[in-house]
Amino acid sequence: MGNYINIDRISAETHEQFDSFANGVMTHTMRELNTPTQELNPGMDDKCRRILNQWADRGLLNARPGQVWSALDIAMATVLTVLKKRGLSINALRQIRDGLNLPMYQDVSVLGFAVLVCRQEYHRGQPSYNAPYLVIDGENRITLCRAADMTLLLPDPEIPTYSHLVLNIGRILQECSFIHKIQLSHMAEFSELPAQIATRILDGTLKRVSVDRGRRRITTVSNGGADPQFGERVIKYANGRAVSETVTMTETLSE
Predict the structure, then answer these.
(1) Could you tell me if 47 and 81 are in contact, meaning their C-beta atoms sit under 8 angstroms apart?
(2) In this predicted model, what pLDDT tens digit does every residue of 187-219 receive, in sequence order?
(3) Contact 247, 211 (CB under 8 A)
């Protein structure tokens, strides 16, 4: 197994099980995981596209909306979505992404190995019971293990950390659609801006935005929308018909 973190604290039984599984992984199987085959556009809305494009722009994702995704692209987006909803920063997600991309065995990344193990358990009818766990320490270092290893990993006095996150990879990959999770969430959850500013910037109707930090004001100009408490609505007509409508709104920044 590759040396990515805390590997010496995983039980001998886990080493044996993981090594045995890896010996049976064929090169073409990993190639299949990396081959773009899935078009995701039909399931996406504008909010999801904007968020995933931002993540791609910041180097978190290999694929973006409008492109064809591989199974590993989908798995990475799913894991990162779950972690972002837990409040992790983009920089933390990037560190974890880098760890998941490290080779666990020759030609098999940590994430790729986890996906293959989960697929095996799914076909056995136990998609989450025997699935691997991903343990993330307070420094965003990762360990892939079994549930039985948890007592060996968590109380580690040698690693200065203030917390651990434990993810059941089987449940995440089989029971979580990252598209659905983003759609059901507030857009500000996936941004590191103050929630009030993020809500306005990520609004699909936004045309312009300005922030006056000195007076703690935010002014937005949008294509239509609800009547502003402070602002104006401008409707332009041509040949007796409304051809455009903009709403200018000024708000006090509360954060």
Answers:
(1) no
(2) 778 877 676 777 777 777 888 888 888 888 889
(3) no
